[in-house]
Write a structure and sequence with these properties.
Layout (H helix, E strand, L loop, with lengths): L1 E6 L3 H14 L3 E7 L2 H11 L3 E5 L7 H10 L5 E6 L4 H9 L4 E4 L4 H32 L14 E10 L5 H6 L10 H10 L3 E6 L5 E9 L6 H15 L9 E6 L7 H15 L6 E4 L12 H8 L7 H18 L3 H19 L8 H6 L4 H16 L10 H15 L6 H8 L3 H12 L3 H19 L5 H8 L4 H12 L3 H10 L1
Parallel strand pairs: 1-2, 1-3, 3-4, 4-5, 9-10
Antiparallel strand pairs: 6-8, 6-9, 7-8
Helix pairs in contact: 2-3, 10-11, 10-12, 11-14, 12-14, 15-17, 15-18, 18-19, 19-20
Length: about 500
Amino acid sequence: MIHVLIIEDEPAIARGLSLLITKNYPDFQVLGICKNGRDGLQKILEQKPELVFTDITMPVMNGLDMIEKVQKSQFHTRFVILTGYADFEYARKAIHLGVSDYLLKPIDLKTLDDILLSCLEQQKSETRLLQKEYLQCAVRSDKLSAGDPDFMNGFHCSFVFVFQGPLCSSVYGETIPDSRFRPLSPEILFQLEQEYPVYIHLLYGRHQNEQVYALVYASSDQPDLLSLAEKIQHLLSANTEDQESDIWLNTILARASDGSSVTDLIKDTYLFALFHNCFGSSSIKICSSVSDQKILISQEVKQLCAGISSSSDQDCFYHMIHSLITLENRKNISQFQLTADLRYYISAVIQNCHRDIVYPDVAEIVSTCYSYEELERELQYETDKICGFHSKTPGEELPSLARQVRNYLDRNFTQQITTKSFQDIFGYNEKYISTLFKSEFGISPSKYISELRLKMAKTLMQNNPDILTKDVAEMVGFSDAFYFSRVFKSHEGMSPSQFLKNLRKD
């Protein structure tokens, strides 16, 4: 609803304009009529209308002086001059004050219609931009205040979260984004908006291989959200470049509910994804509560791991891994459940071998595998390392390649590094290089890059405590300041702004 104030000292013109707007334009509400600029100024500052029709020549205070005082009060509204004069000086001053619309008396209906429609389109555009900025912040940050802002009033917001392949950790996603997962084009989004009564905002999620589509619609509308979510998943499946890699999509529809804030809905969806995103197969689900759910290790997994003994050799372990992977694949379980099961297996292997070693990051292993076959090979590799078996990874030149990759990352970690970078520069895919890199240095390339960036960030802030966080993020290679803050806090236990604040105290 656009609120209108009319400031005019001729009663017939003021009442006629008010009646025209009230009867013919349901998206506009006339707040009142004022007879001079002084009363108009007071009403504008009190009621904050989005649109003001004002005469120029009025008693007590003229229209141009009133507009100037409103602007000095740092309040922005759209002014339309009501005048029967074609005076150049008035026009020049009005232009200087930012007035761009004129309505000559007697009122021309076509001109009034053009002005109101233009105002309505401008408000829709501004509201849509504000909504997108707010929703993007809500997805990437947990620090928004409770409740939704005014520009969300009268709207419901639902979400379609789409994850391509395994749910990748945020650190991995920032350094090695998956360029294969292309979002829907603006042209396709526009077509979907025409088919369904919604605004669709494409947002950046918290993970490498994630797309978030915010669906904003009038509270009175009831669009077929499930149908829209299914169509988005279908279009994205057809949009995947690398069809031979058998990529799967997990789509989650989070529908708005009365009394639920946007931030609460987003938190619930990410928690739901953690418990329900399938590994190895596509799915589409509607988000529901998971507050009471627990991850339990099945008896079948425990029985397999109970077969580990001091006499277990490499072939025995490989057979056990194959049985474990076959079991998990058949159950079509979630990635979170799969990670818990494999962590149980790794723990059993380490306890059996009685070696003092660092536990491998099972969550990262799962999140970087795009098939059960690939996951089986990774488990074989980790088991070989834990038990001290001879590695089946061939090649005397491999440690040299890992050092070449490290040297390259040392020189280029502030640049954008993609999965394609490794193929283009070294002739091997990123997954293969990551395996070699971890074997040589005990850390994945993505985490190595993250550590280099965070070390540089702390140095920059220590040398210049007045530097802006967004400038630090950009200088060290993070494309998003919100994301940089999340990564920094997860590593340092405090936000970059708190880190800088402590430096200034010292």
